[in-house]
Amino acid sequence: ECHRNGISSERIEKEVVEYTKRLVHNEKFVDYVKMKIGKSIDVTEIENELSSYDKKLKALERNKKNLEKDIDNLLDDDKFANRKRADMNKRLDKIYEDMDSVESERIDCLNRLQAVQEQQLNEKKIYQMLLEFDRIYDKLSMDEQRSVLQSLISEIQLYKKDEIKESKTYIKKIKFAFDIENIGEILDNKGNHVEAVCLLSN
To answer: Which residues pair with 13 in a beta bridge?
Structure first.
């Protein structure tokens, strides 16, 4: 629970809900959210990198099989059979080392791709939640309401205590936890200095 300038977190959250409901009725904002939901993050570069690792692994696997075949085909009565076999085994060890290195790089690349895709999925869930905010919020339990606010909003900036009477509001600015410009103009921002930042997660 957060207390700044004698303001309880419940009163702050009430204003946050009011402002958010006003926001989701803003046509430009709704259009923006719908655009974000339909927009995909460009992962072409990562996918191309992943494809290059797959090609390298296929080439190394092909070289390994060919070399193993050559080793098996060595004749025992060949005067240099043992020396050839030793040289080939060294080359085979090098192939295994290269394969291990490429596999590690491929795993790192795949993890990056999955992280980006998961981020995009989470962002779309948040944007979808915003579109549904006005309809579903009042139907949620108190714990669910706070969880929704924590998902949507990262921080709140409050007016100084002596500025509240003039502004007729406690909150100066809301910072959302996703890609969007602050909505200070919607909150009747008068340009006063910020006294404190109150995190909803606290």
So the answer is: none
Q: Where are the alpha helices (DSSP H) in 39-141?
A: 44-72, 81-136
Under 8 Å between Cβ of 153 and 137? no
Q: Do 92 and 72 touch, CB atoms closer than 8 A?
A: no
pLDDT for 156 beyond 60: yes
Provide the total of helices (H) and of strands (E) in the chain, helices listed first: 6, 3
CA atoms of 130 and 137, how far apart (whole Å) = 10
Provide long-range contacts, Cβ within 8 A and 24+ apart, for 140-149.
145/13, 145/17, 146/13, 146/200, 149/13, 149/16, 149/17, 149/200
Residue 186 pLDDT greater than 50, yes or no = no
Query: What is the biggest distance separating any 2 CA atoms in the chain, rounded to whole angstroms?
Result: 101
Query: pLDDT: is 40 or 136 the higher one?
Result: 136
pLDDT at residue 137 above 70?
A: yes
Q: Residue 192 in contact with residue 34, Cβ under 8 Å?
A: no
* 159: β partners: 194
